[in-house]
């Protein structure tokens, strides 16, 4: 029988690695993984990490020392979270120095050579802290702006209902007091001034622009209604005047026919001529 065929069909021993294409062990495609630096190690899994022993590392921060117990296969990012609980430093503001080299948060302790009792230096990153504080202030400003816009939107919704009600009354031929229209316009202008005072970016800026357009639309509607409202009042006044004249007061010619009016000039001339 062919020797190559015998090697091909020979049963394989569990746990042993056999050569494959490219010189990479076949086990690397299954239960192995590539670590930083090109090392082949056993794959990490939740089940396997339960059997990994914990180690104690000593983190020096200023004049204080903190003992942290964690998995030997944990990352430096996980260590930063635990150190943050002990020191109060945000993980993004931490710089961990091991063997005179700053370690990335994604790097693993065992790969870097961290063992039980290893000492790690902690330094506060001032630039990261300042940058994070600036971002925090910006986020707080945006949140406040969003809340202010939400409050204005609530007020505009109430004013919008009143504008719709007034529009229906005027379109139906009813008279609306001018002071009501003026007060409505003034209230909307106040909301417009509040919106103009809000500084916003991104989505919050879009929200502000939407409310500005809404307020401007309702102000334009009220301006049109303010112009139409006096014309309705004038028509009503003319109709009332006609009814009043027709029912209560006779015309000037009718009163002259009834002898209610006399010519004062003629009356005076008659008296003078008589004299």
UniProtKB/TrEMBL annotation:
GO annotation terms (biological process): protein stabilization
Under the heading InterPro entries, the entry gives: BAG_chaperone_regulator, BAG_dom_sf, BAG_domain, Ubiquitin-like_dom, Ubiquitin-like_domsf
Q: Which SMART domains does the entry mention?
A: BAG
GO molecular function, a single term: adenyl-nucleotide exchange factor activity
Q: Which Gene3D superfamilies match?
A: BAG domain (1.20.58.120), Phosphatidylinositol 3-kinase Catalytic Subunit, Chain A, domain 1 (3.10.20.90)
The record's listing under Pfam families reads: BAG, ubiquitin
Domain Ubiquitin-like stretches:
55-129
Key words of the record: Chaperone
Question: What is the designated name of this protein?
Answer: BAG family molecular chaperone regulator 3-like
List the source organism. Answer: Dorcoceras hygrometricum
């Amino acid at each position: 029988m062919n020797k190559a065929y015998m090697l091909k069909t020979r049963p394989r021993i569990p746990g042993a690695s056999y050569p494959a294409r490219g010189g990479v062990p076949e086990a690397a495609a299954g239960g192995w993984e590539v670590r930083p630096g090109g090392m082949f190690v056993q794959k990490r899994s939740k089940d396997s990490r339960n059997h990994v022993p914990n180690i104690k590392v000593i983190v020096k921060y200023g004049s204080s020392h903190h003992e942290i117990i964690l998995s030997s296969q944990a990352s430096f990012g996980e260590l930063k979270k635990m150190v943050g609980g002990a020191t109060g430093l945000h993980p993004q503001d931490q710089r961990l120095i091991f063997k005179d080299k700053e370690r990335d948060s994604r790097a693993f302790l065992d790969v870097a050579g961290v063992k039980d009792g290893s000492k790690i230096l902690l330094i506060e990153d001032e630039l990261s802290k300042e940058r994070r504080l600036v971002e925090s202030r910006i986020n707080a400003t945006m949140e406040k702006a969003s809340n202010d816009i939400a409050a204005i939107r609530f007020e505009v919704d109430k004013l919008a209902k009143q504008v719709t009600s007034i529009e229906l009354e005027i379109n139906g031929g009813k008279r609306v007091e001018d002071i009501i229209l003026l007060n409505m316009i003034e209230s909307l202008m106040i909301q417009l001034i509040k919106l103009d005072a809000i500084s916003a970016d991104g989505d919050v800026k879009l929200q502000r622009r939407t409310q500005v357009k809404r307020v401007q639309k309702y102000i334009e509607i009220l301006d049109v209604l303010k112009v139409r409202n006096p014309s309705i009042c004038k028509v009503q006044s003319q109709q009332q005047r006609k009814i009043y004249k027709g029912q209560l007061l006779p015309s000037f010619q009718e009163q002259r026919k009834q002898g209610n009016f006399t010519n004062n000039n003629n009356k005076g001339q008659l008296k003078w001529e008589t004299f």
